[in-house]
Amino acid sequence: MDYHDMLARLGEGSAHPGGFMATMKLLDGLSLPGGNHILEIGCGTGRTACYLAKSGYRVTAIDLHRNMLDKAVRRARRERVDVRFVQADVAALPFPENHFDVVFVESVTIFTRWRSALAEYRRVLKPAGLLVDREMVLSGRKTELMSRRLKQFYGIRTLATVTAWKKRLTQSGFAKVEVQEQSRSMGKWGVDHDPHREMDMTWFEDERMQRMSRTNDRLLAKYGKKLGYAVFAARKPLEVKKER
Asked: Which stretches make up the Methyltransferase domain (predicted)?
């Protein structure tokens, strides 16, 4: 069992900085046009995807974790919303070019090979389409030991500063790169009520779960002050027609 298996068993719907309240605040501030076709990357148990569908958007949502997706499908049925859930890898999205108005990501890209992920986000966006990506960022000096421990436990592949992320987005072909929100610490967020959460209560008695919980607490205590988060917004450039 790894960290993502644990989240799936717990039915966690918003395991990103700020939690679900931050997601709702972000979406409210973006004021996306009604009817937009939104692709959510790493949808987990489907909480945000269902919220977007209730808000009047066409929603496609992907995740690589089968258990997460199964819970997402059941959530959508309970909430009586229409979401297309697809098991897929961000490095090889099974969608055509220029397909989505918005690609919405929260705490996913750091777990991927970022060059491949950003290239795929850009490919499936329509010209002038919007990428919104909330990610953990480096706000202090990292060490090789820190990087190794965070990768081993959480599966994090990349830790970078806000400046480095902006540069990566630009290098990946995005334009109008902006930082919508930024924090030099991970902060604390309250546990909000999720009436459709599916939690396997037996896992609280599992020694592996208890061991992972202790490890998580130790890592956050040791490295938490060096980690923050930021929300990036960027556009896919308009295609320029070449003169014949």
From this structure: 38-129
Q: What is the pLDDT along the chain (244 residues), one digit of tens a residue?
A: 777 877 877 777 677 778 899 999 999 999 999 999 999 999 999 999 999 999 999 999 999 999 999 999 999 999 999 999 999 999 999 999 999 999 999 999 999 999 999 999 999 999 999 999 999 999 888 888 999 999 998 899 989 999 999 999 999 999 999 999 998 877 666 567 888 887 777 766 778 888 888 898 898 888 888 999 999 999 999 975 544 4
List Cα–Cα distances, 61 to 89, 114, 197, in angstroms.
11, 19, 18
CATH number at residue 33: 3.40.50.150
Does residue 40 lie within any of the structural domains?
Answer: yes
> How many independent structural domains does the chain possess?
1
Asked if 13 and 45 count as a contact pair (C-beta separation under 8 A), the reply is yes
Return the closest-CA partner of residue 233 out of 181, 182, 178: 178
End-to-end CA distance of the chain: 57
Quick check: 231 and 179 in contact, CB under 8 A? yes
Q: Residue 244 domain-assigned? A: no
* DSSP label at residue 70: H
| 110: containing domain | 3-236
Nearest of 90, 16, 8 to residue 48 by alpha carbon = 16
Q: Is residue 28 part of a domain?
A: yes
